[in-house]
């Protein structure tokens, strides 16, 4: 007998688990195939700092007990300055959060299979009918969702995802104790999520300190290994070396120790989206470039994409004549561009401009931010080109030309 479901989801990350949660709540038969074993879950996939905001917690009913610390401020740091914005947030225990999504999905009736490594789609007579896992096992479904993050085995095989290595951002972080969160000469980082623009620590990217309670914090570095990174990088240094160098040289880490077994690492792609779905299939979360390119917020974005996929599947399967053609699935693409990641193009432009800038320009940007009203910053952050222009100076012109040339070459 065939193992049959309405929807088969590959990957139990925030995107896949949320999609399953929503579908199970609507009484669909949904199975989630997750490569990791249940006893250790999440191990390798426990990759995220887990910084998020109340809008995510409220929209998706996330309980407080997966929060390590509620924060009051977002701080942006440059080599010699800092800018504090009052904004409530939450630093999640990413592992506990992922486990909650699985448990809640199961409570609603979702079927979870761990130790299930998805390898390829099953296509019969040109029609996608299911998924192969662990080499020889199979599940069959009307709709298949790839939520495996950057590995994307189904999306790649179906020609949906074109994630490029040149656009892959890599990140690594440690959890530390003994951090001086209110050091002289620096912003007060108690109850704060801090992002630092400084090519010495993160060439072509950014580094961070997120408070996790008492004297503990998550401390990390990320960047894309592209031309900008190479321009600012020190020969022979890898990402772990940059993080260690920061910890060794910043006085805030003078008395710190690493918390055992609490380190996280992973990657995501920062690039324009291409195709997102095809007949009977949708790609969600980091399987397509859903993560916010500017500050790497991928949890909320991924969950919104999971919900958009669930809404699309519901529309397709609840029709009097269920239809899963590419045209029917394209509702997902529309939702993605309007609800999940609107104005992606403007945010990619801002990202490229920001990470091309020099350390001196970062200091100037922060002093400019202090003199601008909050509305300008909020609108620039939301991708308004008019407000982005307000953040530029005449000296940025050569960078704009470099960027325009790069975009034309592409
Ligand atoms: C170092 C770092 C820090 C970050 N910090 C933040 C942050 O502070 N805030 C924020 O919002 N975002 C952050 N992000 C981004 C965020 O974690 C991701 O965007 C988010 O996890 C994407 O969710 P996802 O479900 O698409 O993919 P993933 O979280 O990658 O989940 C994919 C799941 O699929 C499983 N899988 C993989 N391959 C297979 C296969 N072949 N078969 C079956 N299962 C498979 C994996 O084990 C995993 O469980 C960070 C990312 C990194 C790397």
Helix content percent band: 25-40%
The helix tally amounts to: 13
- Provide the list of bound ligands, each named once: flavin-adenine dinucleotide
How does CATH name the architecture of the largest domain?
3-Layer(bba) Sandwich
β-strand percent reads 25-35%
CA-atom Rg in angstroms: 22 Å
User: What do we call the CATH homologous superfamily of the largest domain?
Assistant: FAD/NAD(P)-binding domain
Notable traits:
410 residues, alpha/beta, FAD/NAD(P)-binding domain, D-Amino Acid Oxidase, Chain A, domain 2, 3 domains, eight-stranded mixed sheet, 13 helices, 16 strands, binds flavin-adenine dinucleotide
Can you walk me through this structure?
This protein has 410 residues and is of the alpha/beta class. The chain has 3 domains: 4-47 and 95-163 and 271-340, FAD/NAD(P)-binding domain (3-Layer(bba) Sandwich), CATH 3.50.50.60; 51-93 and 166-269, D-Amino Acid Oxidase, Chain A, domain 2, CATH 3.30.9; 344-409, no CATH class. It has helices at 14-25, 54-59, 94-108, 153-157, 227-232, 239-249, 299-318, 326-340, 344-356, 359-371, 374-381, 385-390, 397-409; strands at residues 4-10, 30-33, 51-52, 67-78, 81-92, 111-113, 118-124, 127-133, 137-146, 168-177, 192-196, 205-211, 216-224, 257-269, 277-278, 281-283. Strands 1, 2, 6, 7, 8, 9, 15 and 16 form an 8-stranded mixed beta sheet that branches. An 8-stranded mixed beta sheet has the order 3-5-4-11-12-13-10-14. The longest helix has 20 residues, at 299-318. The protein is globular. The chain starts with a strand and ends with a helix. The site of flavin-adenine dinucleotide has 43 residues, from helix 1, strand 3, strand 10, strand 14 and helix 7.
